[in-house]
Amino acid sequence: MHSNIITKEFGKFKVQILPALSDNFMYLLIDNSTKEAAIVDPVAPDVVWDAVRKENVKLTTVLTTHHHWDHAGGNKELINSNTNDQLTVIGGDDRIDGLTVMIDTHGIDLQLGTLNIKCLRTPCHTTGHVCYYINEGKDGVVFTGDTLFLGGCGRFFEGTATQMYEALIKILSQLPDNTAVFCGHEYAIQNLKFGLHVEPSNQHILTKLEDIETKRKNNVPSVPSTIGLEKLINPFMRVENVSIQKVTKTIGDPIKTMKMLRDLKNNL
Question: Care to name a GO molecular-function term for this sequence (predicted)?
């Protein structure tokens, strides 16, 4: 495994970080009161079932962020190996194996035990990408798949800079600053190095890079970040800042800034 398995506690619920493949993350979301659980992007079913048994929870739900094989490719095996009631498979794309609930509208609310899950449609990386937001009292988390990474964002495989601007600035940036961000891949170090390339004098990026380099030496995952931190360190969350627009020579046009930044990252 590329990272240690660790658990983050959030009052009414907890999130277990499950590494998979060479740099993917799956997440086991557990409602503490009912012991009902959901798994985000279960590409490695054996790892998922092992975690479910060790935590002694009932897996009822699959939260699929998008159809790419390294996120949804384990759905079929997970469903076939399930000995309990049928799993509810949630997603925003009919290319997702085993889909039972289609999220075709932004902002749909679902339940996991006592937890409310708000489904945020963020098309761009894929046309059917969905992020999942849980907010219980002072505790909030969002599973962002390949839309928002720690220090970066996903490639615009099936969408446009306008769509990524909508996803990052109009949707995810509006969540409370203390919202924990659980993304789809361990890309933090390369993303933060790109951030320093764009903003070499950004002390927040330098401090976070040093912190994460220490964590990674000890196999500790970089996640979670927070929405507030991303606004300080992530150039793609900072496209409305003049300091970023000067680099891309797109003053006053944050959408063009988004496109130029992504092109720059792709070509480095």
Answer: hydroxyacylglutathione hydrolase activity
